[in-house]
Design a protein that fits this description.
It is built from two helices and 18 strands. It is mainly beta. The protein has one domain: monomeric porin ompg (Porin, Beta Barrel). The strands form four sheets. It has a twelve-stranded antiparallel beta barrel. The relative contact order is 0.19.
Length: 250
């Protein structure tokens, strides 16, 4: 089941920092492509393709660190920064197991968007603390923003959005012969969401296949997000979409 869950993560169907290193050597990497980089139901690439990859190191004690990168376009399009086309994630945490097939994972992740800041605009750079539990095919994760702002969102009078959180649950099932399926639901609650109506619920259904030289994933995502708040550069970025991905782990 660890192999299946890692395959789903590599296929862009699950977002779990450090998971790629949970099976095998302490130092691992991954590289892949997707037709649409969708995170928590929202396209980060304006429904355009993305190239992604990263490295993870996991110590025998359960401690891990990692980094992951992808091209994005919403930062420039939304006017949060200029000269940006990259998301750079840095994360670290601790993972372990409890009796009765229960696993846990706690850590911190920082989302960095290199580029030139825009005067008077809240930074999109975001740091979250997270905690997750898993039991057999079920998983639950909670993320909490500890930075001043969550991806540039602000409330009335430019109120900070520290305290924004996201809770998600997923079912991952191994069909055998390299096939896996995923069902996911999550809710993003933005602190001081009294202007942009940024809070929403997202859901996802996906299928993955380990083809030996990599993992192919196909997932459909949708949300109930406010259309006006999530239309960037003339594109609806939180509507229903089907995304295809391929990732190679090494």
């Amino acid at each position: 089941m660890k192999k299946l869950y890692a395959s789903l993560a590599l296929a862009g169907m699950v977002s779990v920092p450090g998971l790629a290193a949970a099976d095998g050597s302490p130092l691992t990497g991954n590289i892949g492509v997707t037709t649409d980089y969708i995170f928590r139901g929202v396209s980060q690439s304006q429904h355009e393709p993305a190239i992604q990859g990263g490295f993870d190191y996991t110590h025998a004690s359960g401690l891990y660190v990692g980094t992951w990168l992808s091209n994005v376009s919403w930062v420039n399009t939304g006017g949060y920064k200029t000269n940006n086309s990259l998301e750079w994630d840095l994360y670290g945490g601790y993972r372990g197991s409890l009796p009765a097939d229960v696993g846990y994972d706690v850590g911190v992740i920082h989302y960095e968007y290199p580029g030139n800041s825009v005067a008077g605009i809240a930074t999109p750079d975001t740091t979250e603390a997270y905690a997750g539990l898993s039991w057999k095919i079920l998983s639950l994760k909670y993320s909490y923003v500890v930075s001043d702002y969550f991806v540039g969102w602000t409330g009335a009078a430019n109120a900070k959005t520290r305290g924004t959180d996201y809770i998600e649950a997923a079912i991952n099932y191994d069909l055998g012969s390299g096939w896996g399926v995923l069902a996911h639901i999550g809710h993003q609650s933005v602190k001081h969401d009294d202007i942009n109506r940024a809070s929403y619920t997202d859901w996802k259904l996906g299928l993955s296949k380990d083809v030996g030289f990599g993992t192919v994933g196909l997932a459909y995502t949708d949300t109930d997000a406010n259309t006006a708040a999530y239309t960037w550069g003339g594109k609806k970025v939180a509507d229903g979409r089907l995304a295809l991905s391929f990732t190679k782990a090494f």
